[in-house]
Structure formats: structure tokens, C-alpha cells
Please model this.
Amino acid sequence: MLGIRVSATPQHLLANGSIPDKRSKIEPVYDWKTLVVTMGWKTNHRLRIECEDQYAPPTAGIYEEIDEQAQLWYIAKNTVVGTNSLGDLKKTKENFVTRNDRELLIQKMAAIAARRMSRLRAHVQVKGICQAAECLGRIATTFQDGNSVYLINGPVTQVSWNFGQGGATTINIGYGS
Model:
């Protein structure tokens, strides 16, 4: 069970609808019986990402990355987020995340993988300009060329484009700097 304490100065500011304090020139604004509070708090839980090097010995193949600055902000369904012009409560209709720093951890893990892990390397060039920038930092597992599928399992370390003569997109996988 969670309890909170709400206070105001002067205290009768929360007494709207109750007996007002006649000694003060400040009129009560809030009714303590109908007051709604939306809270947020920090926990000691941290976002983490783990990656396994399939070629390493069992005792040395797990890499874990925890960033103390990485955050996840979650808002639960029916959380009060404001009021409309009539004073009616505006609530969230669904659960949703407003901040998720998982991408930061994915990029850090890709950098670790590029330097430390056993890996295959790939240099993939595709005709045309592809929107592949969102792949940067992610682990590419396979590449398909026609009917052939190649196992890669490496981090995407570079995406570049050549805009001349129809264009081309180049993706480097597994190349550490």
C-alpha cells in the first residue's frame, strides 16, 4: 500500500468546500476530498542489455551493459495527465512509454561487440538508396542474396550512400574501429 502526504501553505488552501479559515485573506482553492495527484518516482532498476558470444567459452561469453543514465518512462492506463476547459480529468487511454533509452544500450553493446567478440564481417552493397540508418548499432544476424542465406551475427558499424548513377547503399557489419 502506498500513502502520500499533500500539504499547502497556508493549510486551508486545500479546504475548498469545507469550513474556510476566516483569519486569512487567501481563499481556499483545492478540495482535499476530490484532489487527484499524479506521481512519478525513480527506482533502483536499471536498463540493461546482454549479448552472448557464441564462439567464446561458456564462462567468458556473456557481455552485459548497464548505463546509469539510461531511463525508461512508463505511463499507466488511466493516469491523470491534465484537465479540459470544463475541469474534467484527462486520462491516458492506454499504457505507453514516453522515454526509452534502450537504443543507447544497443549502440554501446554494438561497440563492445565490434571490439571484443569473435565475429564474421560483411560488406554489403545494395543498388539504390535504402533507409538503413536505423540499422546502425543493431546486430545483423543473416543476409540473403537471392536463394542463398549467409550467417553474419555482427554489429552494423557503418551505413553510407553513393548518390551517383542510380545510387547505392553500403552497409558494413562487424568492422570495429
